[in-house]
Amino acid sequence: MRILLLVIVLFISISASSQVDDEKLRIGYTAAAPFIIENGEDVEGLNVWLWKRVASDLNIEYEMIPMEFSAMLDSLHTGGIDLSINPLTITSQRSKEMEFTHSFYASNATIAIAEVSSFDRLKSYLSGFLNVGFLSGLLILLFIIFLFGVLGWLFERKKNPDVFRPGKSGLWDGMWWSAVTLTTVGYGDKAPVTKFGKITALVLMFGGLLFISGLTASIASSLTVNQLTNNPDGFNEFKGRAVGTITNSGTENFLSEHFFKDIHTYPNVPTGLKNLDQGNIKAFIYDEPILKYAIQRDSTLHKLELLPVKFDIQFYAFGLPKTHVELEQRITQRILEIIETEEWDIVLNEYGLAEF
Asked: For the whole prediction, is pTM greater than 0.85?
């Protein structure tokens, strides 16, 4: 009886493993140019070429099934498809739910943003002066000029009437002297001669020197922060902004783990880039070769650009259900043999991927 049970279990195992080989494989994919490019009913791209080569060498029959990216991942998990030829990033979480072939390509994430016009840059620069800190400092500066101008005129108007004239003209003389002294210009056309006038000038010079230095530093800091805000050079600059990426992608996990606060997800790259172009998000973050290809090939996205930022190194591979271990090993062996050939380098160059 025990022997019979063992025979039955062995038969079922062999049937299950051979079922994948005997039937047509269900190959799921979603557009991800230049790895998977849809031209009407035709499908091409680096991953398509690689899979067709593998399938031909291993005599595998298959059918191609177009799917949304998120649905494709779910089908891999449940066994709805036998293989995904998309450039899937190998992650620890995905490895718990599916098998991966050996990686055949390494990439990284980058950031796409909308170009800022010259007018917007000028407006942004000028807005650096129109903040509470700068305006408060300017009001304090005018008050100091007025206060010390009045004091200087009061102390000098009787003993120094030629320089600090009586009446309204004298008040103007005091304002002029105070402004020139405070800014350390020192024309020398007006100078106090009385004891209290000179004491006022000393306080104004030393106190004004400290105040002007602080005000200058405040303006410079405000302009620098404003410039960094509008010309970000790293993904940390976008943590408090609305950013987009692909649903259930490795990049979405990366952004969540790095505390991005406002993440918008989209089913595919063209949809995300359109939203970026329309101003619905401030940046779209995803795999560099895919973003670069999409922007170069779509003339309506000419206002978008990629920042010179590289992060989140990713290794691409084909994905299979957990039940397809034997098939994965066969495909992996053939992939390793193919990517070691010169033909692989030629195909990479054909799709503009050799530089990554």
From this structure: no
